[in-house]
Task: structure prediction
Amino acid sequence: MLKRGEVLADLRSDVASASFFRDIGYSTVWEDERAVAEGLRPQKGERVLTITSGGCFALQLLAFDVAEVVALDFNPSQNALLELKMAALQALDHASLWEFLGLAPSDRRLALAEAVAGFLPEGALRYWAARRDVLARGAALHGRQDRYLHIVGRLLRLVQGERRVRGLFGCETLAEQERFFGEEWSTFLWRRLCDLVFNRFVLDLAFDPKHFEHSREQRPALRLREVSEHVLARVPVRDSDINLALHAEKRELADSLLDGGDSAGRMDTEALLRLLKESV
Result:
């Protein structure tokens, strides 16, 4: 029989010691928060458990009038970031909050930090006092994933130009969007950009090799370009609820499986593959 200490040691992963997690890995949560809310369906008075990450889901869950949100993360920097966001929400108005986090231009972030400091618990106060440079740049821009994605975004605008970006998101119908993607967006430079930002060397630098430990034999640049092109060409930009629709379909299947229904039996291989691909 394993003793308690042996069990905890067995559950530890060397991922926790990866360089990615020595600082803030995620300043924001990039998944669609509406799908999470729809999937969890938190009820008034409930106690909710969440991974801290960028802190966005933990804060969003409070909007459902739950009794308590418990946020856990093995990276203490992520918890310090959540505490900073909570303090900023109490200390600042909406416009100042955006400035302070780095989401709007500002030359007074350190001054705003003084106001936020009065709402920080002691541990978080010490953490951020040693990282004034991060506060000066905007904490919401500091995460390693966030920095990578913002760089990709700037390169994308440089390669495609403002006209193409606005043109894609201005498409009124899926047919128009597919045509625009094929005729305007899918260029030689677009494909070379994907080869650059999605190649394994760049991903290992931006994140950590441990992120991709179970997919080392695959070509991430090709796979991620295929996924990106599927989204850009086949997911309607005008349909902001596409993720919710896909989630609802998956939840219906899962509910049927758990309840002993026969939905799974009616779903053939082709339909299952379509559902999985569209949810990427």
Q: What stands out?
A: The first strand starts at residue 47 and ends at 51. The first helix runs from residue 4 to 11. Residues 36 and 222 are 28 Å apart (CA to CA). Strands lie at 47-51, 68-72.
